[in-house]
Structure formats: C-alpha cells, structure tokens
Amino acid sequence: MKVTGSGETLGATIEGLDLARPLSREDFDGVVGALGRYGVVRFPGQKLTGRQLADFSGRFGELEINVGNAFQEPGIPEVMILSNIVENGKPIGLADAGQDWHTDMSYSSTIAFANVLYGVRIPRRGGEPLGATEFSNMHAAYDGLPAEMKRDLEGMTVLHDFGKFWEMMRDRGSPRPPLTEAQRRAKPPVSHPVFLTHPITGRRVLYANPGYSVRINELPAEESERTLAFLFEHQLKPEYRYAFRWQEGDVLMWEDMGTIHNAVADYGPDEHRLVKRCQVMATTFKPGED
Question: What's the pLDDT at 182?
Fold first, then answer.
C-alpha cells in the first residue's frame, strides 16, 4: 500500500490495494489514517462488482439505503446508481446527484462517515475528463474562522433539512418528483452542533453546509441568516478547495465530517457518466460534540 498526497489542501492516491479483496487489518488502518490526513483518497484501476463495492464500503460502517429509494443496484439497495444514461426511454440512475455544495446525510440523526464512489463510465471532451468532484476542507475552514466567531458559536446547533437540497434541485428544473409524506417523515429536520470534534483527527471542524443547513437554532432568525451566509462564503475560500478529476476505474472515498463537496455538471446528456455509490454512516466512527 502506497499513499501519495496531492500536494493540495485535500487529496491523496492509494496504490497497491485490490478493493475486490477483503482488506487486511493493517491496510484498513492505513486507509483510515489516510482519510484523516488527506480527507479524500483515490484508489485507481479498480474492477468491482456492486457486491464488492458494498463489501468494501461496509467495512467502515453501516451502509445507508437512500431515502429516495430509487436507482439501486439490483439486489443491493445500498449501492445507488448515479448516471445521465437513458435506456429504453428510462433513466438508469439519478442524473443530478450532488450538484451543489453539501455534506451527505447532515440531515440525518446519524450523520455520515464517508462516501465511496466507483467510476464506471466517465465522460470526456477533447481528451479531458468531465464531471469533476470538488471538495472543501472543513478542518481548514474552522481554523480560519475569526476567534470571536469560534467563541460565540461554540455550543450552538444548526438545523439541517433534507428537503432544502431536494427542492433547490426541483426549482432548477430537475425531474425529481416532489417528496412524499412518507419520505419527509423518514427524514425530518434534525440539529447538530455547528462545530464537531473529528473522530480520526481529534480536531474541530465546521459542520454546516449550503445544501442542507437552514438555521442556527440559538440565534434570532435574521442573525442566523447572516451568520450562515458568512459561513457558507467562508468555507468555500479558494485555499480550502480541491478538485478531483475522474478516470474510469477510480474508486474515490472521502470522509464527510471534515469536507463538503459538489458534483460539477459540465457534461451534456450525450456525454455519458455512470458512477456507483455507497454511503457509510458514522456508526463506527462517531464525532465528538463537546
């Protein structure tokens, strides 16, 4: 196992592992350590079935079945299909997943530990890959906050709502149907501390994001709105950001507490993309909240 950092604020490549085979304890610990240090890690040149992707991902915690309950790998609902491909007049995957800045599962009472995505088909134009995934470093974002804001927000909580991102995408013309009452009941708004202690690094991170965070509970509405607007702008400073450009066969894994991310939609409907995704919940690696 060889780990090579990107030289940027996030990102590393891990070579020498075949993710179709069970990880040794030493390699498992090495991957966790790399996630803590780099936030985002790439495993190039993988060849995985949906079952093998789920088995690898499940080593790190319980796998979530997406509340949308659609576009799942046959027989393996923990594997979600992200794709703009249409076959026989029907989409085979969710075409607009993650196309704005967010942190997956911040809207859940049990938050996410990590995402694992497998690039099966990557669009290209002029020889260059399209559909990059952008990240921003929430360790760095916390460290860069004014001292008085860290002091004032310490102990406060943020309300996160699954419907915010979903309705934002519908407002932009997404074919996503309205959420059903059952889906809304399954994921009601929840609150989490605005600052968490990261379970791997032991450092503080900013845990708020434009996709799902709707208000700071302890502040008056107008002050909450101003504060969130500041945090959303602050956490996307160029020095905190990293862009990953996909290659077919890449498995990309990132931890969700110390990063936020955005799927770049710079490809057209005839430039086909197919990615398989697992969501690892923070059942094994739980954040500190004090």
Answer: 83
Asked whether residue 290 carries a pLDDT value surpassing 80, the answer given is: no
25's enclosing H/E stretch is helix 25-38
The mean pLDDT of 119-124, rounded to a whole number, is 98
Measured distance CA(256)–CA(112) in Å, rounded: 6
Q: Are 232 and 172 in contact (CB under 8 A)?
A: no
Task: For residues 217 and 199, give the distance between their C-alpha atoms in angstroms, rounded to a whole number.
Answer: 24
Q: Which residue has the tokens 């026989």?
A: 88
Q: Which helix (H) or strand (E) holds 171?
A: helix 162-171
Q: Measured between alpha carbons, how far is 116 from 276 in angstroms, rounded to an integer? A: 8
What DSSP designation does 238 have? G
The torsion angles phi and psi of 25, rounded to 5 degrees, stand at -60, -40
| More reliable by pLDDT, 150 or 288 | 150
pTM: 0.93
| Helix, coil or strand: residue 12 | strand
Q: List, in sequence order, the alpha helices (H) in 41-146.
A: 50-58, 138-143
Instruction: Tell me the CA distances in angstroms from 13 to 8, 31, 45, 110, one per residue in order.
Output: 12, 11, 11, 29
In this prediction, residues 40-54 reach a mean pLDDT of: 98
